[in-house]
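Sequence, please.
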């Protein structure tokens, strides 16, 4: 895809109408989505609270909805402390040493002439750019004449 240029583009009237309509519909849908997400989160939290307060795990409503709540523990390991423990107990075979490039040092080497930037060309990977659509409402104020 070509590099996008940030400049004012003039569209034909039918193109402008079409894009304006799509944009308005898209913005409205985004606003509804945000609103619905907030409502869904609040309702879901209320259901979870109800289940917790009543020590429930499953329920089938009269109108055929099946509800269930499950808890998954969130467990993480303090790797720094574990490394210290493994070293103290002589179990260093469980500790990995990872080689990484120090890009700050690469920049310093290029700045000081130890390395040429062109030497990095063969290591560059050019991937497809990620294209993200942003939509927000203009904050233009109406101008009142007279």
């Amino acid at each position: 895809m070509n590099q996008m240029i940030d400049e004012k583009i003039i569209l034909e009237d039918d193109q402008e109408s079409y894009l304006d309509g799509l944009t308005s519909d898209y913005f409205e849908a985004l606003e509804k989505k945000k609103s619905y997400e907030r409502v869904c989160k609040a309702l879901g939290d209320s259901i979870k609270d109800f289940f917790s307060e009543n020590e429930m795990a499953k329920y089938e409503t009269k109108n055929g909805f099946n509800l269930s709540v499950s808890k998954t523990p969130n467990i993480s390991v303090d790797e720094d402390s574990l490394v210290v423990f493994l070293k103290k107990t002589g179990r260093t075979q469980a500790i990995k040493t990872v080689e990484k490039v120090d890009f700050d040092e690469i920049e310093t080497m290029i700045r000081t002439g130890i390395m040429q930037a062109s030497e990095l060309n063969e290591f560059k990977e050019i991937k497809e750019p990620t294209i993200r659509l942003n939509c927000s409402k203009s904050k233009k104020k109406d101008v009142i004449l007279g």
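Strands lie at 58-60, 66-68.
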